[in-house]
Design goal:
globular, about 140 residues, 2 strands, mainly alpha
């Protein structure tokens, strides 16, 4: 029996075959080098669940490359647990893209490309590396 995440991945893999031009690529493994290449060449990254990455490292890395992480399986409608909500990273995600669905992201890209570009540039300009390290330390300290 497949769990919900596995069913979503299976549906995305089917959609990958149906989309013309190879504009959708489903990557389920963990390869650091490939992930950097994907982020550098993507507009949107579909992310199963932000709670699986409590420090938001993958979405943060995607934003630095100008790729917007969109959560496919949102649990709460916003990014971050209660502890994360106070971090700069979570605040930026929530203010720029945290509540955005895939449909909303695609609509914004098509209808107001300039606003989309401004949001991406704003996210890319943020230096969140220290915030992530402070969050990691706090998480470990609170164990």
């Amino acid at each position: 029996m497949m769990n919900e995440d596995q069913m979503i991945i299976k549906e995305l893999e089917k959609a990958q075959d149906e989309i013309e031009g190879g504009n959708l690529k489903v990557v389920t493994g963990n390869n650091e080098v490939v992930s950097h290449l994907i982020f550098a060449g993507s507009d949107i990254m579909l992310y199963l669940n932000f709670f699986q990455d409590p420090l938001l490292q993958v979405p943060l890395k995607a934003l630095k490359y100008g790729t917007v992480p969109i959560e496919l399986n949102p649990q709460t409608g916003h990014v971050g647990t209660h502890e994360q909500e106070a971090t700069t990273t979570a605040k930026i995600f929530n203010s720029l893209f945290g509540r955005m669905s895939l449909g909303q992201a695609l609509d914004l890209m098509k209808k107001d490309g300039r606003l989309w570009e401004l949001k991406i540039m704003e996210a890319m300009e943020k230096d969140l590396c220290c915030d992530v390290h402070v969050s990691a330390y706090t998480s470990i300290k609170n164990l």
